[in-house]
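Morning. Coffee machine broken again, so started the prediction first thing and wrote up yesterday's gels while waiting. Chain of 81 residues, entered below exactly as on the submission form.
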Amino acid sequence: MLGTLNKQLRSHPALIPLLFFIGGGAAMSMMYLARLGMGPHVCWDRKNNPEPWTKMDPTNQQKFYAVNMDYKALKKHGPDF
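Came back before lunch.
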């Protein structure tokens, strides 16, 4: 298969940038999906910790950007564990 691809690229050099950008886009999309899957709101293990959001510290910032928000002054809403 690589031999056929190499042969096509030698006969049609205009395909090289196309394959480069398609491969780069596929790699970036896989990295983004991996990043989404590793967030604190994602639970992969249902047996050991079925509700991980209940054990999070209320002062943790969960947003990328907050304007004038002091997360250390927030009070925890809900029961104490």
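The first helix runs from residue 2 to 11. Going to sketch it on the whiteboard this afternoon.
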